[in-house]
Amino acid sequence: MILLDYSQVCVSAILAFSSDLKRGSDGEKKDLIRHVALNSIKSYKKKYGKQFGEMVIACDGRNYWRKEYFQPYKGLRKKSRDESDLNWTFIFDTLNEIREDLKQHFKYKVIHVDRCEADDVIAVLAESTQEFGKHEPVMIVSSDKDFKQLHVYENVKQFSPMLKKLIVVNKKELHAWMMEHIVKGDAGDGIPNILSNDDVFMKGERQKPVSSKRLQEFIENGFIACKTDEERRNWQRNATLVDFDFIPEDVRQTIIDTYINNKPKGDKMSVMNYLIQHRCRLLLDEIEDF
């Protein structure tokens, strides 16, 4: 099973053409985004399909459950994109359109579930290969460091499009990494460290620093190293947001049900017709790789 992080993989590829997205007509920009997205998906299917089997495209749904739990989650991303010189609304609208095209015309399972992020889809499906006793080989295509926690499974590997290499994880260091991830949070996702308030990033304030001594205490003792009710509360906040074990059970079941009931609609002919319709002539020469 190839688990591809749709938005992250496509955006990473698209950014290499950022200068081209600042000129030309909307139609030309849309054609470029479509070509880059489809070419990226095709390249990973070609690279890993023989060894890892079916391609599953994991997409971000709407109304993330993490944002329901913690309102500032990823709260600064919109501001950052609004300040960018790229039209991110146009880019994501186009990627959403391509996502629907993939469902209708291609041979992949596209998992797009309300309240779920691609992270949830990938985590739940990777873990399901243990629960179902299949232990089939899994290749995660994503640069997201959160997937390190899935490397505890012997059948899971990860390729980073940003680093352009396989992620190698020392399983003996996973516990320490997870404790540090909970303690320090994730500034990119708007998750503060456990010594800081929920809204520290939204207010543009500095976090309270976590000393190396305290970090080591947490690595050695986990939750019981918390000294105050506030630290215990913030530990729970961060663990819920970063540890895949806290994905809600209803979300897990929805992902599994969607995967089981998902029947790809496309075949070689529908792929060919789609590529012809959208003038993807270069991709037509490699149609077998889809």
Brief descriptors of the model:
290 residues, alpha/beta, six-stranded mixed beta sheet, 12 helices, globular
Q: What's the arrangement of secondary structure elements?
A:
Layout: E1 2-5, H1 6-14, H2 26-52, E2 55-58, H3 65-69, H4 77-82, H5 88-105, E3 109-111, H6 118-131, E4 138-141, E5 156-160, E6 165-166, H7 174-184, H8 212-221, H9 229-242, H10 249-261, H11 268-277, H12 281-284
Parallel strand pairs: 1-2, 1-4, 2-3, 4-5
Antiparallel strand pairs: 5-6
Helix pairs in contact: 1-2, 2-5, 6-10, 7-8
Molecular structure report:
The structure is a single chain. This protein is of the alpha/beta class. It is 49% helix and 8% strand. It has 12 helices and 6 strands. A 6-stranded mixed sheet has the order 3-2-1-4-5-6, with helices on both faces. Strand 5 and strand 6 form a beta hairpin. Helix 1 packs across helix 2 and helix 2 crosses helix 5. The chain is globular, with a radius of gyration of 20 Å. It starts with a strand and ends in a 6-residue tail after the last helix.
Shape: globular
Percent helix: 40-55%
Strand content: 5-15%
Low-confidence stretches at least 5 residues in length (pLDDT < 50)? Answer: none
Q: Give me the count of strands.
A: 6
> Major beta sheet, specifics?
6 strands, mixed
Structural class: alpha/beta
Mean pLDDT: 94
Figure out the total of helices.
12
Report Rg.
20 Å
